[in-house]
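Record type: ASSEMBLY
Status: queued
Input:
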Amino acid sequence: MFSQLVMLGSSGMLLTALIVLWRKHVPAYISAYRLQVWLLAGVTATVGYFTSDWRLFAVAFVLVVLKAIAIPALLRTMLRRFGAQPEVRPYVNTETSLLVAGLLVLFAYVLARPWMAVTDLPTRDALPIAMGLLFVSLFVIVSRRKAITQVIGFLMLENAIALLAAVGTYGVPLLVELGVFLDALMGFLVMQIFVYQIHETFDTIDVEQLTRLRH
Amino acid sequence: MPSLALLLVPPLVAAALAIVVKPYRRFVGWAGVVLASLSAAASGTLAIQVVRDGPVFGGVGDIWRVDALSAMLALCIAFVALLASMLGPGLADERDGDPAQTRRFRIFMNAFAFTMLAAVTTGNVALMWVAVEATTIMSAIVIPLDRTKASVEASWKYILICSVGIALAFTGTVLAYFDFVSTAGEVPGSLNWDVLRDAAPSLHPELLQLAFAFILIGYGTKAGLAPMHTWLPDAHSEAPPAISAMMSGVLLAVAMYAIARWKVVVDGAVDRRFTTTLLIAFGLASVALGAFSLVIQRHYKRMLAYSSIEHMGLVAVALALGPLGMFAAWLHVANHAIAKSASFLLAGRVLRRYGTTEIDDVTGLLRAMPWTGTLLAAGILALVGLPPFGLFVSEFLLVRAAVETRHLAVVGMVLLLMAVAFVSLLGHLNRMLYGDPPPAVATGERRSWPLFALAVPIALLIVLGVALPAPVDALIRQCVASLAP
Amino acid sequence: MSRAIAILFQTLLAAGLAPLVGGFIRWVKARLNGRRGAPPWQPYYEIQKLLGKEAVVSRTASWIFRATPFVVFSTSLVVASFVPLVAAPAGRFIAGDLFAAVYLLLLGTFFLALAGLDTGSPFGGMGASREMTVVALTEPTVALSIVALALNAGSTSFSQIVSRTLAEPAAALGPGHLLAFAALFIVTLAETGRLPVDNPATHLELTMIHEAMVLEYSGPYLALVEWGASLKLFVFLALAVNLFMPWGIAVSLAPIPLAIGLVTFVVKIGVLATAIAVLETRVAKLRLFRVPELLSASFVLALLAVLSTFLTR
Amino acid sequence: MTVDRSAAFLFMIAGYLAGAIVALIAPSDRIARGATAIGAASGSVAGLVVALAVLATGDRFELVRPDMIAVAGGIAIQLDSLGALFLALVCSVGLFAAIYGFTYTADYDGRRSLRFFGLMFNAFLLGMSLVPCAANVFTFLFAWELMAVASYFLVMTEHESSDARAAGLWYAAMAHFGFVLLLPMFLIMAPAAGATAFVDLRAGASALPPAARSTVFALALAAFGSKAGVVPLHVWLPRAHPAAPSHVSALMSGVMIKLGVYGLLRVTADFLGTGPAWWGGLVLAVGSLSALGGVLYALTENDLKRLLAYSSVENVGVIFLGIGAALVLQSYGLPALAMVGFGAALLHTVNHACFKTLLFLAAGNVLHGAHTRNMEQMGGLIKGMPVTAMAFLIGSAAAAALPPLNGFASEWMVFQALLSGAQIPKPEVAIGSPLAVGVLALTSGLAAATFVKAFGISFLAMPRSDAAAAAREPHWSAWTALGAFAAATVVLGLFAPSAIAAMYRIVESVTATPRDVTGGGGIWLLSANGVAAVSPLLIAVLVASVAFVAFASIRARGFDVRVADTWGCGRIRQTARMEYTSSAFAEPLRRIFSELYRPTEDFSVSVHPEARLIIRSITYTTRIVPWIEKALYEPVTRGARAIAASVRRLQAGSVHLYLLYIAAALMAALASAWWFE
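Status: finished
Output:
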């Protein structure tokens, strides 16, 4: 039962990542992200419940408050500020990006094969999915041209790692968990400041304009 | 324990002071300098203490662990932070920038120093990752100090690339931790480096190889190893001189420190040739990229940035060449930190006087700014590895280590690439120093205190180059011993 | 001590005979052209006349112009002192070997070229430039012919070479020896300014090399320079004769061998001088930029000489 | 008197350092100049004392400070007689160059930073004097690079002209090329991990397999050859020496390139010992190439100091011929004859240091007086500067190897060394040595032509420019240096036999071969087998006496001398334009060797705008294209630029591309991790 629930949660997260690749409008990305955080909190809570480790409940709660509510709100204010222009044509069109995402998940399974052999944790099967989510969010950052989308890609990268930690080692010690949260939050805030600054100096947030610094 | 606290707390206090005093005033700057020198003195006593009687532990669950290597790096960081706080905006130059910018600089420069000190003094590998991530964030904020198009672009690229890199490093950390947990079970303090090192032989080799791959790419991005170096030239050339001095001098070294720590753990489980080959490959790529990027280079700040890539490549190669190579690596890190931070600060002074970073527009430096010109010449001569400066000694040891470990191909490649870098850097220096200064530039320079402050690192380099003092020699031997498996 | 007197006597003999050889060649050429020609001892009259005349010195010339005649004369005479003429001298008083002789003559030419430049006239400059070109190109040939001789003699000292060829006359007819002689003969013509390279009898600006340098000299200076030049010719002829056909040279210092040595030496010099005269009447002067071909031919001859002495050893 | 050598040695270092530091912080230019001169002079005197002490007694001088940089083996000083000879050279030339420099740099007052110059001049002397004393790899390389850095800045003193800057860069690049080869060479010889002292290298070298020994030899020849300025690696020398102030170029040409010879001797004669015959053959080939190439370029040079620089390349070629002959003889088991070769090379090293320094200092006087280096604008300087003219004449005669001066003595010894090589029965040697003799003879002939041109065109006849006409002697203190070296040139020439005997003692102490070759017997300079002999002293006496007799007899007869215009085929007035110019003087030889020079000639006629038939001016310019540089160095620089251009394209500016790099690197690392086990 425990492993099925975890599998359900993590594959759900992977699906939300695919939404970003599929859809073209930024608001859709924000809702996908929010859903992903809820699923992550769910997975952490189930792991906490089954291993009766209260720390994970606290982590899940902070996840929800911080990443499910605060960050999407900030993202929406940013969106209102810049107007919801449609996503500029990305480097890779939708079909190929979905295809690449599939390949990346496959690669994650190949990569995770030695880990599966090593451990007998019930949440063993979720490991390749976590790695898959990591590679997909990396691909989102690389392929999308809008600064906001890259920020969302980065946030999904953080979620992938949190999932990997939760699934692989039932969470890291509390102090480290706190540190990771702090970093994620600070990272997001700084990126937000930079997006405002880019908008202000370049009056567009298409990262493609940012190629003045060469050689 | 007290000297460790005395090392870490002063930067925090300085940052807090800067936050509190809303309109920036000069006494905040001087307070920052005093606190920085306090922290530097503490790092000195810490180093002596560590050399005398072994690693110092501290904090709950031993999260702080200072061995010789951490002490040496802490000393470098504190020294460069002191230099940066003295010569940063708001104190050194007569015409102050607008107070808000200076206040922001003071806050995040001290925070940046604290995060670096924390990264090298923590014993817990995950906390080390958190601290390194924090250094990225703290330094990223302060790059676009003057809000030009270039600096905003540089900061965006810096934060994005480094965060992606660091995320990969965390994956590697989690993988190693996962492997440790699955073999030894839930042991308190399991993320401490010395626990991991002792448990290394029992871990699974193939898993640790994957973990090291992630870690090398992750921390390699922070260390500026090719091909993950792309953020470095933009960030270091656009950041304010004090920040690029700290970044180029010691931040890269902190990332190399992290790689070195993990190399020891991975070498416990996997055959040493794995990490050696990877380090030499990435090292040589960086040296090659750094050297050849210098040949046609039009901006002197980017020139110094590419030279950092080359030197970090040399350190990576040296780490893979056995104990003498390790000695050469850490001596090179110390020498490079001093030389590069001094050079960047001097380049900052040149930028303020000439107003341009184009090498062709900067002529007659010896005539326009005789003292800065001479010191900059000394700095760049040190960077190309000429006696009587310290880098000559470490590069000599590096080649000797390579010959002794029979890496003759590496010797050939390294020497050839260093020659390319030598000719290019000297060519650019040649163009800048001599000839007549452009009419618009004022000539002549008062002997003010910033120049004396900048003469200290150059003098230190000569001391390290001519007569490696015994305490430094002992400290670096201890560093090598502390990394021995 | 008697050895020193023998060398002194030999040097004086060289100084005395040198102008005669020059005059003799001129006389033979005149006879070949069907002219009566001035008597062979005419140069003595010239020298005696010049010594009495007034010397004209150019305004631009420095002390080098005035010192050169003495340098040229003394170097040629000193070379004559250690070249084997009548007897094969050995022992303490011989100041140098073949290389020393060549380089001492080069000292004379060095100063003569400087004197040519010193007067500031284009002719002097042209003469000096061409003389140094010719000298530079003859050096390797001289060196290689010395090597050829020294190879089978074991060293470059005159007495060693002469005694070795005396000891085994068969070697003298060997290819090495003949090729070396031919090379040295061509070098003699080039160095002393004889016909194929430079025309001694002309004053035509474009063709003269040696004459151009001494154009400005007059009076006693000219006498000394002419005497030095004839001494140089005499030394080269003596070298060619005694190193390659040393038969009849006096080995001991007793009066009879000395007398025989003197007679044979004079006959041999006479034969060689007539040979040069005949050659000069037959051949025309080479264009300056064809001279290097002649000199490289002599260099190849010398190289073959070295190889053959090595092969036959 | 037993001099305390370590005290003198430390005093030498103290002297140089004091000179450097006091010059740097001197308040006024004059004090800076004074400090430079006094510091350099005192250091040189102390160094000279140490060197002569070691040369006289023959026992080594040791000073080891292992604590200085312990990990690299510490600072170790050991002076044997070979090192002492070169230290003596450095210090003696340094002493007089310092004295000469004091007045020479007076022109720089106010215009150039004399403080920086003082610092670098003393650092240069310190670096050069430490090289022969170094006894372990680190100290040697430290001194070697310090010498290179300091001389780079000295070359850059007159940095207004862009070609001085280019010269500086060329020089630094080539010096570093040498260093990059030296480092692996020494380390390959180091036997054990920590053993980098020269004593261990000596042991290590003998234990090396033949292939490694040949690599060490090749690296040593290339590295020390580039410092000595042998032909393929000489390109920096004719650029750097003229750009430096004259007393510095005297130091560089007279002494610094000799440290390349010292290095080669130390590695081949001392460490490697006897090697295969092709070693000697290679050195002979390089020597001949340098001798011929150097003199050919010197011949067509119109810049006086560049001419002297190319002549240094030629003389280094002669030294390498000596070493090559010695190595060949050594490889065929004739160590006694090899000593003649090494002795000849050392003697020519000392002789060249003397007369080349004399020539450069005299050229310095000319530059000071006539304010130009271009020989086409000189002429008639002998009238305004008689002493400098006399010094230059002695130097030129010595450079052209004319008896009885020192150039002749050492060139005669090199001839004898090559001749003794010709007796080896092997065919390739029997042909090689005579060819080398031919090359050496051609070189000395061309050198004679070069120096006739150098002296004749610049000093004799009428001045070709007003500056040349107004040229006057510099301050009398410059004559001390000229006098000293002129005397040394003459004395070393006349008493060459005792000089060559000293050289044999030095070679004997280094190669430890028995000395059955008869050294100089009294006034006689003997050949290898002791039969052929020449006595410069006797020649000088004879020539002088004959000249005196002739002079006295003519003076006795009495004749009056009339001064009149030079005969000019009836022209009215003789002007300087009618004189032969330096390019005209070299024209015949340039035409003969045109395939080697490959001159570019362009010829333009400018016609009067209205009437096409009236020619206003015809300009004919010809330039000697240094095709060696084009063939060897251009491809290297072009290749580096091409790679640099492609590397630059990597940094294309787009963040996405950069992230792709990271993804690719990750894939590569993961693949290598997966493939590894």
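Annotation: Chains C and A do not touch (no CB pair under 8 Å).
Annotation: The first strand of chain C starts at residue 55 and ends at 58.
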